[in-house]
Amino acid sequence: MMKQTMMKKINDKTMTVGVIGLGYVGLPLAVAFSSAGYKVIGFDIDADKVSQLNAGHSYIIDITEETLTGALTQGFTATTDFSLLSEMDAISICVPTPLTKAQTPDVSYIESAVSQINQYKRLGQLIVLESTTYPGTTEELIEHVFDNEGYQAGSDYFLCFSPERVDPGNPIYNTQNTPKVIGGITEDCTLLGKSLYEKVIPNMVPVSSPKVAEMSKLIENTFRSINIAFVNELAMLSDTIDVDVWESIEAAGTKPFGFMKFQPGPGIGGHCIPLDPMYLSWKAKESNFYSSFIDLAQEINRLMPEFVCEKASEALNNARKSLNGSRVLLLGVAYKTDIDDVRESPALEVYELLKEKGALVDVNDPFVSEFRNQQGAKVETVNTNDTELAAYDLVIMLTPHQSFDLQAIAANSQLILDTKNAFQAITSDTIFTMGKMAKKKRVPVLS
């Protein structure tokens, strides 16, 4: 009977949807459900975020204020009052899952959300966990808690795991057009979860269990971590044997099968790639299984900020300068191009390492006005004009935002270290490219 009632609410769009956690995952999801005609309430512990949203101000780059205003007009609201969870028919959990200092999973945000749901639960609710986590989390942290309260998944309530696939700033793929995996505790759980989500995400991919869905997310990002580590190691090798790794990768990328192109960089950033593989590695160690690939990839990627600093020192040495005391400008602190997200950005570590080595470091990022250093103090970014660029002994390209005028930077900088091959089309004796430390040369190709 509950299943039929829930299905009717889904199809009639009389269901009230709650989203816990209004960040890069939760807010776009809440707006999508609102746009589809559902009543949506977003829950967050950050009162400032809630106030901003209710006033029509978006802090997420993928949600414009026009889109947010449209959702508010349709009835979306944000709140810090978790007692309203008792009014929700469906609840999506989209909270952070960071790592502890010991590189083990920190599921405290999930536990806190589950505690709130448990306090205000009622029969018949659909609960979907979206936060990236280790296989078994849905059963261990939600189902077992509700079991202890006498609530059985599949009859008293419905429980699924559906991993988020948000890629901030992606101009092509968003919450609604990216295929989405979902796995429930029972077949009815999966059916209801799929039926609700496909109202906003047409391409749903049902799997047999939450564990399969949880594992799928970790596979996706561990795959990326390992392949990025591979090309980062190739960049370090190419630097040693004087091969242009960028040209070699482009050549390899012409193969139409059996190869997928990844590119080197100063490290890995964002919430997913630096963290998710460690969830899988930690879970493996619980079963006395040690994944060499995962741990090795993490180690190589962690080495990249130090490698960037070594290349910075070499570039300055070629100009008869020392890194200690040199003025260095970092271009980009966000973890990827054209977004304002600095979570786990390798640029933060490059900044700290250069400071430790005595460099006088500034950061220019048109998307980020300030960030926090390792001590938690705010660091304001700077705006630099063409004349001011010349005052820096070294400019390091870390995040090549499209708004950077590469021609002007190349023309006005004393020395450039390019970690992303952003200046590939510019020939200059002042540009050094990571992966080929020799100065840029253009060798004519004979036809």
Q: Determine the structural class based on helices, strands and strand pairing.
A: alpha/beta
Describe the biggest sheet?
8 strands, mixed
Q: Give the strand order of the largest sheet, numbering strands 1, 2, ... along the chain.
A: 3-2-1-4-5-6-7-8
Unreliable segments of 5+ consecutive residues: 438-447
Helix content estimate? 25-40%
Averaging pLDDT over every residue, what do you get?
94
Query: Helical region count?
Result: 14
What is the CA–CA distance across the termini?
74 Å
As a whole number of angstroms, the C-alpha radius of gyration is 24 Å
The dominant shape is: elongated
Strand content: 5-15%
Order of helices and strands, N to C? HEHEHHEEHEHEEHEHHHHEHEEEHEHEEE
List how many beta strands DSSP finds. 16
Write a brief caption for the model.
The chain is of the alpha/beta class. The protein has helices spanning 2-12, 26-35, 47-54, 65-73, 108-120, 137-148, 187-197, 210-241, 245-252, 276-286, 292-318, 346-356, 386-389, 406-412; strands at 16-20, 39-43, 77-79, 90-93, 126-129, 158-161, 180-184, 204-207, 327-331, 360-364, 370-372, 378-380, 394-397, 416-418, 431-433, 436-439.
Blueprint of the fold:
Layout: H1 2-12, E1 16-20, H2 26-35, E2 39-43, H3 47-54, H4 65-73, E3 77-79, E4 90-93, H5 108-120, E5 126-129, H6 137-148, E6 158-161, E7 180-184, H7 187-197, E8 204-207, H8 210-241, H9 245-252, H10 276-286, H11 292-318, E9 327-331, H12 346-356, E10 360-364, E11 370-372, E12 378-380, H13 386-389, E13 394-397, H14 406-412, E14 416-418, E15 431-433, E16 436-439
